[in-house]
UniProtKB/TrEMBL annotation:
The keyword DNA-binding applies. Residues 12-72 form the HTH tetR-type domain. This is TetR/AcrR family transcriptional regulator. Residues 35-54 bind DNA. The keyword Transcription applies. InterPro entries: Homeodomain-like_sf (IPR009057), HTH-type_TetR-like_transc_reg (IPR050109), HTH_TetR (IPR001647). SUPFAM superfamilies: Homeodomain-like. It comes from the Bacteria.
Length: 206
């Protein structure tokens, strides 16, 4: 076994410690009142170690969302041509929601943290826009339409993301079935616009 995989595992473990410590302090003290030194101390690491992994507090706050976006970007680029973007998105959201729910209360805490500071909210919105752009391009290919401007593919991508945002808010407030709500968002979207994707229309029928 080479040393590289071990170094990679150590690097991932260090990042997870820092992200977890940052989340804990952001929630207990507030984003603006938390210092990078405090985060490093809580994680049991030197602040210089923190700087090797994260340049700013905002980088720490958006680390989780960045991780999931990179995974999504890689997965959608590798999806088979026979699978529609809408069905891919449904499977992706189901799988990732199940994984995030395994975190329990930590996931709900993460959702609360995303809107607690303008800096974090700004980073969250920027990542959301990247999801929208990528979804728009792939939906446009399926619909044989242009993704430019105020287009149907852009509106469909926005519909999916806005529906997911609402499902997260309901879950954050407690008592909702986020997995069911997330799947319902896609199913309703397919009912409304699935006919526009003639190549995959038989797959998207509910």
């Amino acid at each position: 076994m080479t040393k590289f995989p071990l170094r990679t595992k150590r690097k991932m473990a260090t990042r997870e410690k820092l992200v977890s410590a940052a989340r804990q302090l952001f929630l207990s003290k507030g984003y603006d009142n938390t210092t990078l030194e405090e985060i490093a101390e809580l994680a049991g690491l030197h602040v210089q170690t923190l700087y090797r992994h994260f340049g700013t507090k905002q980088d720490l706050a958006k680390a989780g969302d960045e991780h999931w976006y990179r995974a999504f970007e890689s997965a959608i680029r590798e999806k088979p041509d026979t699978q529609s973007t809408l069905q891919f998105w449904r499977e992706w959201m189901t799988t990732t929601t199940e994984e995030l729910l395994e975190e329990g209360e930590m996931y709900r805490s993460h959702l609360r943290m995303r809107t607690m500071s303008p800096a974090i909210l700004g980073a969250t919105i920027a990542i959301r826009n990247r999801y929208e752009d990528l979804l728009t391009n792939y939906i446009a290919q399926d619909f044989n339409m242009s993704p430019d401007g105020v287009s149907i593919p852009r509106l469909v991508a926005g519909m999916l993301l806005s529906g997911n945002d609402h499902a997260r808010r309901l879950y954050e407030q407690g008592g909702s079935d986020i997995k069911n709500d997330t799947e319902k968002v896609v199913d309703l979207t397919i009912q409304l616009v699935g006919h526009l994707d003639r190549q995959h229309a038989h797959e998207d029928a509910i």
